[in-house]
Amino acid sequence: MARIGSFLVLLYLTYPFTLCICDDDESNYGGERGNLFPGFYRSSCPRAEEIVRSVVANAVARETRMAASLMRLHFHDCFVQGCDGSLLLDTSGSIVTEKNSNPNSRSARGFEVVDEIKAALESECPNTVSCADALTLAARDSSVLTGGPSWMVPLGRRDSTSASLSGSNNNIPAPNNTFNTIVSRFNNQGLDLTDVVALSGSHTIGFSRCTSFRQRLYNQSGNGSPDTTLEQSYAANLRQRCPRSGGDQILSELDINSAGRFDNSYFKNLIENMGLLNSDQVLFSSNEQSRELVKKYAEDQEKFFEQFAESMVKMGNISPLTGSSGEIRKNCRKINNS
């Protein structure tokens, strides 16, 4: 895995727009996207994307898992107040950090990499590139560095001056949510079922903690019985790693076949009833429309990549702060003048 990761890092730094779903025309990024467009920093900080790409590449070379962690930070940020960098704020003054919410506590990681990105950007062009944009770019680069698609990232977000612990607790889908709850929480952000399935495909990389899937192994419906949709030999293997009690932080691969490579094997796993999280497996077991999407992406990786890129742009455009709203933080962990 380390050799594959190093090769992909080198390839991306050499050919940064491989597999790119691209459209750099500013006129195509108006309307609901507000003032976001890919060339936003072309004059004010022309090396911004290069700087982000370099820092993320080094981080992923050190630890392949970091790609999934950065992508998850972007997802958890966008589902609370929009993509405004609110997740990055520490508790200070009137700010109560989102990092201590149920979805983020003891699991959200990668903040040090964002700090490193921001420091490099501030050195190159002070008070110019927002933390929200830096994180959005890092998510795209994390996809490419693990073998996934690239896309042009609309830019121009500004950073929030507030955070929402309650929003983080209530808006982000949980691993044991029902299919309807998951879809509802995506719908609340302007995302549809196709986005749900495509974006869930990011679970082709990364790991999950025992506490997030223990219920499926031992007490799925509150009657002391396991989840019958979980493939039996896979479930037995998971029980060896995840005990009935204790070991909450023990990790298991979200994609048993290729946890370090972004591909479509996640969807193939769902068809075999080998999705790790309940929120994964219900995409195949609970709804005919989502089941057909799972099958389509399992059969055609290119179609998955195309839709994933489109859905990531769509998610990245949730309620951005633009113009004079918000601020450009100097330090992603705290608002200016605090």
Automatic annotation (TrEMBL):
The keyword Oxidoreductase applies. It comes from the Eukaryota. Keywords: Calcium, Disulfide bond, Heme, Hydrogen peroxide, Iron, Metal-binding, Oxidoreductase, Peroxidase, Secreted, Signal. Pfam families: peroxidase. Its main location: secreted. It catalyses: 2 a phenolic donor + H2O2 = 2 a phenolic radical donor + 2 H2O. GO terms for molecular function: peroxidase activity. Residues 35-336 form the Plant heme peroxidase family profile domain. Residues 1-20 form the signal peptide. The keyword ATP-binding does not apply. Binds 2 calcium ions per subunit. InterPro entries: Haem_peroxidase, Haem_peroxidase_sf, Peroxidase_pln, Peroxidases_AS, Peroxidases_heam-ligand_BS, Secretory_peroxidase. Its cofactor is Ca(2+); heme b. It is found in: Secreted; Vacuole. Removal of H(2)O(2), oxidation of toxic reductants, biosynthesis and degradation of lignin, suberization, auxin catabolism, response to environmental stresses such as wounding, pathogen attack and oxidative stress. These functions might be dependent on each isozyme/isoform in each plant tissue. Belongs to the peroxidase family. Ascorbate peroxidase subfamily. Belongs to the peroxidase family. Classical plant (class III) peroxidase subfamily. This is Peroxidase. It comes from Camelina sativa. The lineage of its organism: Eukaryota, Viridiplantae, Streptophyta, Embryophyta, Tracheophyta. The gene is LOC104747648.
